[in-house]
């Protein structure tokens, strides 16, 4: 059975508005006008998408991820529907995309401490669980967007569209810091637009944050993945093979893991400091 057939999702029924009515509502939102009388209210549409996102989140939360993520901390799952301001921003930026075709009006985030390969496995489990083809997967690790790296799964359900963002702990920390910076410097920096502050240091800050993700963040994830691959190659997951691993190899694994953990902690602490600073500047 597809995860889309879960009662939490099915109980919502099919999306009650057609594409034409949603398009007209989107045009009204874009223009900052009241919607026509025959259009749904914005509050009703957002409540629907909020319920849809929450339903998908609950379905994912109920799954047992330990078989894929093993001893990792449980994934953090959150959901939301777009606010009217962020939706208007997207509609203005993409005038050829009517409201009904906006993929991320309903959004779910799956964030977890994991390797890149484990991230791939999670994405595959979600995609196949909802009986969707691989074409719904959008890998923003190989094609980052202004520093943003993650993997998105675009669901198309009878109840509406949902975007699931699957992020490692490193990708998540950077995204949160950059989002906080966008609240202060202008949300346009998320799309490559100039910051709304013309101080000479602002452009350098935005560029620096993007490079931190593209270089240091990606490098840390590569090192974690290489270490995990080395552990498997030595057979440390097999008690019989692990018993014959040399003391030197064991010591090397321990040392590498300690260095990776220390480097990641330093990276995450720095990003959390940036996020806190920006939150204070934009309460």
UniProtKB/TrEMBL annotation:
Protein name: RelA/SpoT domain-containing protein
The organism of origin for this protein: Cellulomonas triticagri
Entries under SMART domains matching the protein: RelA_SpoT (SM00954)
Listed SUPFAM superfamilies: Nucleotidyltransferase (SSF81301)
One example of a Gene Ontology biological process annotation: guanosine tetraphosphate metabolic process
Segments passing through the bilayer: none
Stored PANTHER family: GTP PYROPHOSPHOKINASE YJBM
Residue ranges constituting the RelA/SpoT domain according to the UniProt record: 79-189
Pfam families: RelA_SpoT
């Amino acid at each position: 059975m597809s995860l889309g057939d879960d009662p939490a999702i099915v109980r919502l029924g099919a999306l009650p508005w057609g594409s034409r009515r949603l398009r007209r509502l989107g045009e009204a939102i874009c223009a900052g006008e009241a919607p026509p009388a025959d259009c749904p209210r914005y509050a009703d549409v957002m409540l629907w998408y909020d319920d849809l996102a929450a339903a998908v989140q609950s379905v994912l939360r109920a799954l047992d991820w330990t078989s894929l993520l093993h001893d990792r901390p449980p994934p953090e799952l959150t959901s939301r529907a777009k606010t009217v301001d962020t939706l208007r921003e997207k509609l203005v930026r993409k005038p050829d995309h009517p409201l009904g075709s906006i993929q991320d009006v309903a959004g779910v985030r799956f964030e977890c401490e994991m390797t890149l390969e484990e991230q791939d496995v999670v994405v595959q489990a979600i995609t196949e669980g909802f009986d969707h083809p691989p074409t719904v997967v959008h890998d923003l690790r190989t094609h980052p967007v202004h520093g943003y790296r993650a993997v998105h799964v675009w669901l198309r359900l009878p109840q509406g569209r949902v975007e699931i963002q699957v992020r490692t702990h490193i990708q998540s920390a950077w995204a949160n810091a950059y989002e906080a910076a966008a609240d202060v410097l202008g949300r346009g920096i998320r799309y490559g637009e100039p910051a709304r502050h013309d101080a000479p240091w602002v452009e350098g800050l935005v560029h620096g944050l993007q490079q931190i993700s593209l270089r240091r963040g990606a490098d840390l994830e590569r090192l974690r993945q290489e270490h995990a691959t080395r552990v498997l190659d030595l057979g440390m997951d097999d008690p019989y093979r692990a018993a014959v691993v040399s003391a030197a190899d064991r010591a090397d694994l321990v040392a590498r893991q300690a260095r990776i953990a220390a480097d990641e902690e330093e990276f995450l602490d720095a990003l959390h400091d940036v996020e806190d600073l920006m939150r204070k500047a934009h309460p």
